[in-house]
Amino acid sequence: MLSSVYKPLWITLPNLIKTVKPLADLNSRVNIIIIPLAILSCQMPTHTKNANGRYCINLPKIGLVPLVYNRPIPVGFKVKASTVIREADGWYISLTIEDKSVPVEVGEIQPTWENSKGIDLGLLHYAVTSDGEFVEVPKFFRFSEHCLSKLQERLAKKPKHSKGWKILKCKIAKLHQLIARQRLDWQLKLAYHLFSDVSVIFVEELKIANLVRRCKAKLGDNGQFLPNGQSAKSGLNKSLQDAAFGQFVQILEYVAWKLGKRMIKVDPKGTSQHCWECLNRVSYWYESVQGG
Fold first, then answer.
1. Which residue has the higher pLDDT, 265 or 107?
2. What is the mean pLDDT of residues 160-187?
3. pLDDT of 1 above 60
């Protein structure tokens, strides 16, 4: 059976706002433009460059757009769609390519004691593996939080849409982009490291939306709001979002697919009621007695 394999290809589009008028009109309102079909002119041997000698991409209803073409499309793949995305440092394009010769299903690896490990995600240690490895929390947002707050204070004092306001807004956006890219790079390296000695990884299927949900409001008899612990939980929510557990699980799944390995999500319900040594289920009473 044949199937489609989609692989993103990121290419910088410098000076796209000045080059393409339709995008210039939507500059302040649109961040993502999805185009059903994109044809790379560099795929055509006789039309690899424009009149100025630059590689271009032919976008429907827009025309030729110059780009930095640093990754060729693999042989046998066909461009199916493209997504133009505006980032803090410019415009990018993500190309969806397809190769129908790739099979749909691959042989699943059966987990054993020798080829598997489990990881537990947390805030005290980012990841604790079943073989005794502890990974510290990087805290990329926390390290840049002070600089970010100073920039936001300066932004609040500037007249909206003034020249200084736009400059500070761009600096804040680039700082957020730097934090996100640092986190993504670190998570990719950690995922490859975890799969370096095993073929199967077990991870809890965490509900991140439930973890960062606001506390339910409490009302007194006179209709006034009572303390509900939200002020203390706000710091916890910030740490959870900085850790980006949901993104890390997606990266683990992608790396497992890329390496031909396997990642299995485990329902966290009741996992704390099993003895780590004999794997037998124990009661809450037994845990309280042992812990007390």
1. 265
2. 94
3. no
Integer Cα distance of 292 and 281 in angstroms: 19
Alpha carbons within 13 angstroms on the beta-carbon side of residue 125 total 9
Whole-angstrom CA distances from 106 to 55, 102, 112, 253 are: 37, 10, 18, 14
Q: Give me the sheet containing 32-35, strands edge to edge.
A: 10-13, 90-98, 78-87, 32-35
Residue 60 has pLDDT above 90, yes or no: no
User: Using 50, 70 and 90 to split pLDDT, how confident is the model at 209?
Assistant: confident
Nearest to 121 by CA among 49, 194, 220, 22: 194
Summarize pLDDT for 276-291 with one digit per residue, the tens.
667 677 765 444 445 4
pTM of the predicted structure, to 2 decimals: 0.77
Radius of gyration of the chain (CA): 25
Sheet order of strands, 200-204 included:
134-135, 127-129, 116-121, 200-204, 262-266
Give 128's strand partners. 120, 134
SS (H, E, C) 208-251: HHHHCCCCCCEECCCCCEECCCHHHHHHHHHHHHHHCHHHHHHH
| Average pLDDT over every residue of 226-251 | 86
Q: Are 157 and 240 in contact (CB under 8 A)?
A: no
- Reference 142, options 212, 236, 242, 233; nearest CA is 242
